[in-house]
Amino acid sequence: MKRLLILFAVLLLVGCAGSKKTVCDPSSPDCAAEVAGAVPQDSLRAKFQLTLTVEEGKTQELDAVLFSVPGKRYRLELTGPLGIGVASLLWQESGWQMVFPTEKLFLKGNGYMVGLLMDNTLPLVHIHQVAALFEGKLLPEKFEVTATQDSAGYKVIRGKEHSGRFFTYGEKEGTIAWLARPGRDKGEEVLKFAEYKSFENVNMPSHITFEQGGKEFLDIRIKKITHGKPFSGGTWRLNIPNTYKPVGG
Q: ∠ CA 235-5-135 to the nearest 5 degrees?
């Protein structure tokens, strides 16, 4: 079970920070129309494959679909072999939920930081970073450049986020090649961006790898991204059967 939770956490762990926005009032006509399928033009749907290193020499491949109304609500579906559902995540400002159908477990929380507060193996991560990554926004929304230098063919920039956290990234031939920042008790965290492609006229990496303490633990390959498509009303409802038990319960 813990490995599945780590998978969710590292999937969201990316070196950019989106701003917290207000979700619409569910009782308002505009919000009701949105939930019914009239999704704003900034809606995003992404299909991708991720490979998680579960232990030395062993990996697990999953297919993933992300439904996103950036800054407002997100739904993430992970499936394994034969299309069997592995996990689902629904985030809204009123709270977030995860369900694990094969294990009949669930997890709930509040706020835009997702994870387990008392579990050091799970970094608390900023949920808005998901949409930012798949929109090709690889750097924090607001940051201050503190130093710049050339090194081994890269332009290396050191920056300071609005929150005060420092990070470093490398540019090569006009694109961002990697981003590094201090990790949480496990050494430096590094994201590597490669195989840039155009997704609906946005040039962005289709291959992203995550490293921690010098070891790769997650690999993402983006297959397709679309914007402005309506979602079904069921996208924003996540059923938790009474037979499911809370994680750790």
A: 50
Count of CB atoms within 10 A of residue 112's CB? 18
Give CA–CA dist 63/199, Å, rounded: 19
What pLDDT, in 10s, does the model give residues 63-90?
Answer: 999 998 877 888 888 888 888 888 888 8
**CA gap 224, 81 in Å, rounded:** 20
The token duo for 26 is 């569910």
pTM (predicted TM-score)? 0.77
pLDDT digit string (tens) for 206-229?
999 888 778 887 889 999 999 888
Cβ burial, residue 175 (10 Å; 0-12/13-18/19+): middle
- The Cα 26–Cα 229 span in angstroms is 20
C-alpha closest to that of 99 among 114, 89, 109, 110: 89
